[in-house]
């Protein structure tokens, strides 16, 4: 499928897809005239890359994970370890955001009490 079709399916812009390819995050097949030719397998992979990025994984770490993935099943343990470490970071970020939310709720509560107490 073309980059436009792939972009529509994944919700990721053609610009971002080209950037991911340029950074070596994923490899794209080419057709006989050199145009990108995305496969069904590429859909879930690029969505996973986007989720890693959205959860704060650095591009260099995504690149390392991607390199390992393309090396095959012998790298599963190392890939799992990368994901376990990233999960720890996500859990810590979640804890921080929950604390920030509690602080905001407390402040909003103070304002609500003062405004309604007038």
Automatic annotation (TrEMBL):
Keyword Chaperone attached: no
Gene3D superfamilies to which the protein is assigned, alphabetical: 1.10.1660.10
Keyword Acyltransferase: no
Alphabetical UniProt keywords: DNA-binding
A Pfam family per the record: MerR_1
Lineage top rank: taxon: Bacteria
Molecular function as annotated in GO: DNA binding; DNA-binding transcription factor activity
Residue ranges annotated for the HTH merR-type domain, each copy included: 1-68
InterPro entries: DNA-bd_dom_put_sf, MerR-type_HTH_dom, MerR_fam
Protein name: MerR family transcriptional regulator
Organism: Sporofaciens musculi
